[in-house]
Amino acid sequence: MCDGKLVLALPEWVGPFLEKAPSVFENIEDRMRLTIELSRLNVKNETGGPFGAGIFERDGGRLIAVGVNVVLDTNCSLAHAEMVCIGLAQQKLKTFDLGAEGMPACELASSTEPCAMCLGAIPWSGVRRLICGARGRDACKIGFDEGVKVPDWIDTLESRGITVLRDVLRKEAREVLIRYKESGGLIYNGRQATFPTKESNQS
Amino acid sequence: MCDGKLVLALPEWVGPFLEKAPSVFENIEDRMRLTIELSRLNVKNETGGPFGAGIFERDGGRLIAVGVNVVLDTNCSLAHAEMVCIGLAQQKLKTFDLGAEGMPACELASSTEPCAMCLGAIPWSGVRRLICGARGRDACKIGFDEGVKVPDWIDTLESRGITVLRDVLRKEAREVLIRYKESGGLIYNGRQATFPTKESNQS
Which of A165, A178, B89, B179 is deepest in the core (most CB within 10 A)? Predict the structure, then answer.
């Protein structure tokens, strides 16, 4: 058997990068710019897919945690940027619920809209707002599979008190995806080649 | 910032338990019995919610990895039994795709049908078969929230080449849920109290 410990580590370049970054990001464009930069650097450093995420205090803008896609480096299909970011934020703040009483409201910024797994994880995380750069269909266009999401996925989050803002710096976020594809980046979802995804209405 | 490492560890009782367990589980009832026993022991040892999972070689029945719900102990809402199990199996076999060429077909057994997050994770994992004990609505009945799943979630897995078997020892699996509720076990999803879930047709 295994040793019973699942470890998902961020790439080594992330620490030094964050040391030079601000600790507070006042507006949503700045927050999105950080996640897009993380997605770009993840490609540049060849440490994973073109996806970045950050969790911030919604009102003050303090950065709590970041994530990048480390599926390849960690040998783990769960290691999407949003998942890594949610887990790191929760363990940093020592709570499985970022929306618990007494916590500052948190928001998740993602360089691309969440796939079906990450979408399912968002209500459990306790974040109160989701901001997205590129659309799910922008990721699909370069060959990634976003899975099967309910067509009204934005409404389902909003009905749980999670506000959704989409298309924040979409063009810049999409450019990273396109460049990844053009540079021959691995589209690593093995299952997708055989079993094409259904596209949802809102993607 | 955090140290950039997300760690999800199984409870300490799991190792000794597995040392005494068989390494091969020939039929699906035996595989399900193992995951139900894991769910029961997780409650008994007060190490998390009443959910267990296992990944096996579908044809030979060799046990690859197990998971239990460790949301509370790890301070991480992602740490559902299925997620922990998928990640451990992949890291043990050193692949992010359990369905990659050359791999034996793998199956995921879960003591309760997957929530929306775990459902989204299954196609990325590479497993070829999912076997479920209790239904999603059995978990909802004791107060857990399974999130918003597409109504035809079984069909969406089958269309990706993932066979689904449900209601395997459902009664035994459900009993663990009921006993957890009766013993005053924490129904820990904070968001669910305020924002009731929609039930899907197939749950």
Answer: B89
B113 part of a folded domain: yes
What CATH number is given to the structural domain containing A94?
Answer: 3.40.140.10
**Rounded to 5 degrees, what are φ and ψ at B67?**
-145, 150
Residues B5 and A11: their CA atoms lie apart, in Å, by 9
Interatomic CA distance for residues A145 and A153, integer angstroms: 16
Q: Are A69 and A48 in contact (CB under 8 A)?
A: yes
Does the CB of B145 have a partner CB in chain A at under 8 Å? yes
Q: Cα(B71)–Cα(B52) distance, rounded to whole angstroms?
A: 12
Q: What are phi and psi of B202, to 5 degrees?
A: -85, -10
Residue B2 belongs to some domain of the structure = no
List CB contacts of B197: < 8 A, sequence separation 6 or more.
Answer: B140, B145, B146, B147, B148
User: What whole-number percentage of chain B has pLDDT above 90?
Assistant: 87
Task: Output helix, strand, coil percentages for chain B, rounded to the nearest 5.
Answer: 40, 15, 45
> Cα–Cα–Cα angle for A97, A102, A106, nearest 5°?
55
Q: Taking CB atoms and an 8 Å cut-off, how many pairs form between chains A and B?
A: 203
When pLDDT is averaged across residues B8-36 and rounded to a whole number, the result is 97
Interface test mutation site (partner B, options A96, A98, A186, max chain B beta carbons within 10 A) = A96
Q: 3-class SS at A19?
A: helix
Say which of B37, B82, B107, B113 is annotated catalytic: B82
A134-161: pLDDT as tens digits: 999 999 999 999 999 999 999 999 999 9
Q: How far is CA A201 from CA A137, A152, A195, B121, in A?
A: 10, 7, 19, 21
Residue A2 lies in a domain: no
User: Domain limits at B122?
Assistant: 14-194
Residue B201 falls within a domain, yes or no?
no
The ipTM value here is 0.93
Picking from B54, B100, B47, B99, the residue whose alpha carbon sits closest to that of residue B74 is B47
- Lookup: tokens for B193: 């109290």
pLDDT digits (tens, 9 = 90+) for A45-86: 999 999 999 999 999 999 999 999 999 999 999 999 999 999
Q: Is B115 on the interface with A (CB under 8 A)?
A: yes
